[in-house]
Design brief:
six-stranded mixed β-sheet; 5 helices; 33% helix
């Protein structure tokens, strides 16, 4: 059941990223960790994504897009300079972390997507060129 929820949420994020004009790249992080670790009844599954966009501030300030993945109980936002993070805990029990990176130039997409070759735990969900 947990894997189904995680896969459903990931597909929703992928569809959203494809349709959104300001998104140039979405990477799913820790893919190997999500697949290999069994979830106990007491642990909540977590998903981590990197989103490259030219609209970081809009996504950080107008976070109604987070409701596309279900109702949530907690939302934490932090600015770390080069990137910003939104960590959201959903009613379904899934926690999602979004690392938001400013990417104004199309070459930024390739810079971030190249890490897929280096990291087996990373999966490209969206890559617009």
């Amino acid at each position: 059941m947990v894997k189904f929820i995680e896969e459903e949420i990931t597909l929703k994020l992928q569809r959203w990223g494809i349709d959104e004009v300001g998104i140039s790249c979405i990477l799913q992080m820790d893919v190997d960790g999500n697949n290999d670790e069994p979830h106990s009844e007491n642990s909540n599954p977590s998903l981590k994504f990197m989103i490259v966009t030219d609209r970081v501030n809009a996504y950080m300030n107008q976070s109604d897009w987070l409701e596309l993945f279900g109702p949530y109980t907690k939302c934490h936002k932090a600015n770390h300079g080069f990137f910003q993070i939104i960590k959201t805990t959903y009613v379904s029990g899934v926690t999602m972390s979004f690392v938001m990176i400013e990417g104004n130039d199309k070459k930024d997409v390739y810079t971030f997507c190249e890490i897929e070759d280096l990291e087996k735990s990373v999966k490209i969900l969206v890559c617009k060129n």
